[in-house]
User: What shape does this take?
Amino acid sequence: MNSVIRGTGYPLVHVPDMVLLNGTTQTTERIVNPESEYLKKLGDHIRTYEQACAYYPNQVYIGNYTPEILEEVEFPWYDKPSPVSDRFGKYGEIMPQEEFYLLMQASDEFELLFLEKAFVEKYKPELAKNGIITEAILDRIHEGVELEQIKKQVNEHKAEPLRSNGELVGYVKNAHAIDENLSAHVMLENLVSKASSVLSLLYALKDAGMNPDDVEYVIDCSEEACGDMNQRGGGNFAKAAAETAGLNNATGSDVRGFCAAPSHALTMAASLIKAGTFNCVAVTAGGSTAKLGMNGKEHVNKDLPILEDVLGGFATILTANDNINPEINLDIQGIHTVGTGSSPQNVIGSLVVDPLERAGLKVTDINKYSPEMQNPDVTKPAGAGDVPQSNMKMIGALAVKRGDMDRKDLNDFVSKHGVVGFAPTQGHIPSGVPYLGHARQEILDGKMEKVMIVGKGSLFLGRLTNLFDGISFIVQANEGVEEEATVSRDEIRGLIAESLRDFASSLLESR
Amino acid sequence: MDLENQQRVLDLSNEYGAENIVVLVGAGEGEAAGLAAETVTAGDPTYAGPLTGVSLGLCVYHVCEEAVKAEFDPDIYDEQVGMMEMVLDLDEIAEEMEAIREEYTKYC
Assistant: This one.
């Protein structure tokens, strides 16, 4: 029995101060070139919260538009404010940085994150207005500390500052005096990942219309590592976030694989359900501070705003087949193996064309492909091109090479079967999964039958292997569970009654 | 260009001599290919890596340029690069690479 996608959550968090303080492009620049023009100009290129909300790709991500809107609005999009600029959407919200600091504190179990008293007084009521935030989360927020304590920790004890509009409002301190893995920097990154994962889980549950107690297993597929010097990547982000989100009946574990991790995690979640091990599994990932403003230099050079100013999160709830929701079909899976090779055609062949061929399908039989959903508004000015479009061209080119399609149809194929990129460039976040929510809805509405989600990962970044990686799967309209030949309770009662009658009459006859 | 890769290019140039190195770029866009080519010829234009202010002037090509293609076994080239040839804007890439070679390369 295939698993089904019951709901998805896609929140964003607008974090302008974190772009300046925590993005690695900026932290690296401060080390190698502290007086650079880039750092001087950067502050003038930061978007306000309202601007980040009135941004088409962000509104598509949280579900207030479908990706098709990006085909209608002339590119680039950063200078065309969207008429819909709501904080809340079908799948999530764009949370302001200040409220997120409070959520980070609620996610902090070790008293590492402190916020200033007046700041808490001002923003806790704001967070409390948010229907998704539980009482249990609000209860975990502390009263706050004096500004003097914050200054002392940041200036004298290497605590990581938390700022709001440049003003110091809090800090994250280290969790160990000498262990780098528990440094203030790492703890900040991990608390950000955990808190945004919590938010994603809450939205996915809401979308699924399910109770936190229903979830039995959680898989985290973000790109951070938590642990100490004796077990640097020990984990477990999944269970940690499940605790804060109130998933009391769940355990969980972490799956890693760079940008391919979400597709690996979904494959595992779907397998756990198909095997009957669990009935309800959540896959979740929080956002990453390191990638904020990653292409900032190119954006500032071209006089664009810093578009990488949001943390992305995603979660999805898979359950046993309910005969309604779209199924994950694990029979048609693309796998990039150790022996596959790393040329683009080997990669696309193994992930897209080969599995379809094995299933007797043509490339054109899939309604939409979701390979890597990076927002081209971010990547094109940085010289990295339109990533989803390039992927679609590669899929199309391979289909031409294999004779599935004529070369003249290549451009039509790209626009008809591709999805315009809308996801923030947060590594694991864009890879295939941002489209799951929209795909689920389109399939439920009967507008499409089959969607292929393709996760790809660059393993060389970890310097352990030069291999590439990837895994793909198909999401398809629910075919309905086959009725097994079973006998109902009433039928059994009838059969027993019949035999008793036969027995009784045989006794009478024998007299 | 990745800081680690800049260091590797610099180390290889010191070890074997800049005149003996050919750098093959595989970037998917003319601009990105040009940035990589500029880094190994004029120096790191982003002022971030080990090649900042180091003008190696290396011989640099994109793998999809005709001159490079001619060096390959056609079957292997088709197997490894054929699909990307269909996808990339080859003229834009070649133009960008030629411009960089013209201006900064000392060895080809």
